[in-house]
């Protein structure tokens, strides 16, 4: 199996397959973002910016230069012209593309596909808000605009040889930016701790989203079972898989607790998402969490 992965024909086929999936990923992300935008009302607030928002009655302490004399001449009082709060910020996204993320049980999307869709939908929302989005593992700085969405989608769909488990190693994390890491986080915790600690040192806060397949939570295996890593590098056979359930679930619970503790210590937030739930169920709280950090 490992020999065929390295042949030119195989690499070309995977590249062409990724390119073919690009429009589908973009469309799915656009639709997902639209569900959030349709319900995104009442979020304006006053602050520095160029876009007009509303007039309000002048209050004690308002400087004279803030009064809109033309509007005030139309009524009996003085009115202040408020602009909508604007701040061009950066949202850096890391998507774990390791082999473990390709797992899917039944007809559910793989963890990787769900992570890619969420990441791109978040980039759509970010750029439409006039902010910048980027992938933390690439050297390019975050940018805004439609062209950036295409660059992000293209980078997310890139194939290549990957390890069984991924680890965030951000290359670009602007000071004060917001960040999102999407992974199953089933590999070593130490690289995750290093990445979040380094981010916190730069004033970067964000959300860690753990994406799991329902079977990874339930461990519905019993009797003779062959467990094999997605890359095929690790293989384990047992006649009593059910006897492993308690130890496995205990280890998974401890991993989740470790991630939550890490987020608490670094000022991040932890969110758990299962691939049998809708993508909207993950994107809405994720978008809200980032918005609260503006």
Automatic annotation (TrEMBL):
What are the DUF58 domain coordinates in residue numbering? 55-257
What taxonomic lineage is listed for the species of origin? Bacteria, Pseudomonadati, Pseudomonadota, Alphaproteobacteria, Rhodobacterales
Which Pfam families does this one have?
A: DUF58
UniProt-recorded name of the protein: MoxR-like ATPase
Domain of life of the organism encoding this protein: Bacteria
Q: Which organism is it from?
A: Jannaschia faecimaris
Could you tell me which InterPro entries the record lists for this protein? DUF58
